[in-house]
Amino acid sequence: MKSIPPANLCTTDFLIGDLKAPQYAAGLTPKELQYAANMILAQNAGALVLFDQVSKESKKIHAFLSAFLTETPIEKLRNAEQNSPLFYLLEFACAFYYNSGNYLGFGDTKFVPRLTKEQLREIVKENAHVSKLLDECIEDIYDVSGPKSQLGFNPDGCTVYYQPDDFTQSEAEGIDQVLKAAGVRIENTAIIRHADKYEVSVASIEVDEKGQKVGTYNGKDVYVTKGRSSEALKKVVKHLNEALKNVANDTQAEMIKCLIEHFTTGSVAAHVKYSEHWVKDVDPVVETHTGFIENYRDPKGCRCEFEGFVSCVDKNESVALHNFVDSSATILKLLPYPKEYERATFNPPSYNALNILQMTSTGYPIGINIPNYDEIRLNVGFKNVTLSNVLSSVAVQKSVLGILDPSIRDVFSEYCEQVESLA
Description:
By secondary structure, this protein is of the alpha/beta class. It has helices at residues 21-25, 30-54, 58-71, 74-78, 85-99, 117-124, 128-135, 138-142, 169-181, 230-243, 250-265, 268-280, 315-326, 328-334, 374-379, 388-391, 394-399, 406-422, and strands spanning 162-163, 189-193, 197-203, 208-217, 220-228, 286-294, 305-313, 350-360, 367-370, 383-387.
């Protein structure tokens, strides 16, 4: 592994946190559980969309890893010796699925397994199917040359949001000005430069390969096409239609219908409407949110990746958070900055504690504030959520032990969950 820079080696000896999802799901009614299950299936299907947004090879790596993990006897995986080649491969698989790709969700650095290509091939050599899938991605797994080592615009990094590889930041800025003038929302798009045109590709089930001309940049026509990730989104919508049969109320029904329209047509306006219904769905038992949400891995910071979570509300902890929100008008007056820095009208957010059942994303945060659309945040509102079982997981608890005085680390670790509930 001497040829791989240390910064690109997969983290080792990390902690695995148990979110105890079955424990929290056990409190749901059969109808609520069916709704949650269908939303989980929808977001799992959307993971294929997300893989394609991380790197060209991520979907191939997923095909290899999923086949390896399902076709290898479970006892062999469980008995992997510490720091053995198999152990390092399993760590790579954990990191890959946590980050939904082979680049860090927070940090944008490519990571490769701590075993050599030869050791990796040795592990799977008895399985022809898995070996074939590995052959299709092994060179890309280990390639950290030049811009491949991190995400970004060429020559400092690589990205699948803008193609081909030598696509420049100035091109992206110029084309986005054309799209803005034409009134085209860009959250669920990618841009491809062809020899004779620029293609702005919209993620949608509907396919329009010819596209609509919206302007010209750098002597080339700019077309908006539809149909990127069409097959994966069909599976997403299939499960959303099943979830629609088990919604808790009319607001949730309208919410899911708008989400289906968004994935079917690619209309961002439909997702804005979905977000409006979502904000108005106050204190649901099963809380879920899906779409092209965060722009962290777009080097321009505009285009968003597929993301979704399914959770159930922690009713006891949410009571304390509701009391906090009810006091927000008083608290705001005490903050040490002029009132001019506040919005003209403050709409108190919904604030709940959630226990995550499933999440498709590039890492698990401990809290979320969404939606990101200003027109909804200003005119309708937004939701703050604390992901309680993420925050209280062993992995998160122990990750902060290093900053504590040694004399209190054991006490903190033992009572972390109880202290968090009182905070």
